[in-house]
Amino acid sequence: MPGVRIPPGVPIKSAFADIYLQMLFLFIISLLRGIVAFIPQELLDKANLGDADAQNSIGSMSIKGDEVKKDYNLAFTWIKKRLSKDMLRRY
Which helix (H) or strand (E) holds 43? Predict the structure, then answer.
């Protein structure tokens, strides 16, 4: 692999295990820092069942990057669901 130098005498399996562990460590650190996070399953379930507050919360979290990675497409999807539900109620 370009950029990866395996020292002489180190078995290839061992070197790849080290790389895997480093990647796993970085992923865990990013979770702790909030770079990569997940929408709580309970909130997602409520939103999928049509709970307007849950839909709004997911949209808001996705815009701000609050507890999850910023994702404007996801935010637009959930906020659009919320607004369409409000529009149907009014008419």
Answer: helix 41-48
**Residue 61: burial class (beta carbons within 10 Å; 0-12, 13-18, 19+):** buried
Q: Which helix (H) or strand (E) holds 85?
A: helix 72-90
Each residue's pLDDT expressed in tens, for the chain with a length of 91 residues: 456 666 677 666 666 777 778 888 877 776 666 554 578 889 989 988 989 889 888 888 888 887 777 888 888 888 888 887 665 555 4
Q: Which residues contact 18 (CB under 8 A, 6 or more apart)?
A: none
Q: Where are the domains of the chain?
A: 41-90
The pTM score is 0.54
Long-range contacts of 38-43 (CB under 8 A, 24+ apart): 38/68, 39/67, 39/68
Q: Cα 70–76–79 angle (5° rounding)? A: 110
